[in-house]
Amino acid sequence: MAWRVNPDFLREIKQYGDVNIEECFNCGNCTAICSLSNEDYPFPRRNLRYIQLGLQEKVLESLDPWLCYYCGQCTETCPRGAEPAEAMMTLRRWLIGQYDRSGHGAKLYTSTKATIFAILRYSLVPLLLLIIGHTLSSLGVRGFENLRFVTDKVDLNAFAPTLWVWAVVLIDFGILSFRLFSNIAHMFQLVMKPKENKIPLSIYIQELKTFLDYLLTQRRWRDCKEDNNSRWLKHLILISGYGLMLVLIVGLLWWFQTDNIYPIYHPQRWLGYYATIVLLYSSGEALIGRIKKKEELHKHSHHSDWLFPGFLFVGTLTGILVHIFRYTGLPWPTYILYVLHVMVMIAMLDTEVGIGKWTHIFYRPLAAYFQAVKLRAKEYQDTTAAAPAPASPN
Ligand code: SF4
Ligand code: SF4
Fold first, then answer.
1. 250, 173 in Cβ contact below 8 A?
2. Ligand nearest to the CA of 43
């Protein structure tokens, strides 16, 4: 099969990150040192070579960038300063942009202006909805009369009725889920090429356990570099806190956002406290790491790298302040911080789910899944080809 060459490929990739790929002379040190690469997936060298040769389609169908967990060992040992670890991160950004057919994801990676504009646009939606709701209430429009500012005590449910907020969250969740799944479907088309590779459905079903395994245990973090247990554990805890907060907000908001003051042992409080502590610590640590630039992982910060931890940190902090003001009975600070909190969370979800760094949560276990399916399909084909032909009737 002939591969088309894109002579501008390297220039395009450079829009997505601070890479030095042209310096690579293909010695293979990086692949030899990488604890995650293997014969079938010799990254990062292979993809660097593809980029140098302008083989865009080869990179597009590659799983390699998702199998790298950015320990930085390859960069530390590269004799040419080609920054292979950051090259893999840059390729992940580029791939996220390519999987998203709308072009929105790519724009957010290549333009800070577009990113700022998107954040403003998304964050203003909940504010506008609240202003419209309260205006209709002041005009006495039926159905909106319960919406009001209670100022002698905190009444969040009158300021922003929980069921209405929940409805908005569910609608947004539906839209974002559609975006995520259509991008995943595009990734599947590019990587697995179902029209060319006829892989039995049973193999896809059998290997679903690999996807769940990598999603729930995050164990590939542990396999990346020898001393990586703490990084794996931190990531696992982050996922547990993030997943729990997602369940509390998307599935249980009617129970989680309440004006009731519960005792400390009530699950509404300690589940919320667990998720809050985890999110604040994890996002704070990631931001400090990027400011200090000590670890290889944090030395190069593309503007998109600040968004997810930044949103998480500000969103969690405003959530904590809402909680404090609510418990101390301060209505106005509670309402103002609540609006800010919702604005930040909506902006985070709309700029991250399916098109931002958040998407690593899904694409990485999916890559492990597709890798396992390909391997199983190859074994299946080898077994079928080796099976003796049926005996002739004569
Ligand atoms: S990135 Fe560096 S270590 Fe890897 S093949 Fe190129 S020159 Fe060698
Ligand atoms: S950053 Fe680590 S996991 Fe990624 S290619 Fe380099 S050595 Fe391998």
1. yes
2. 2
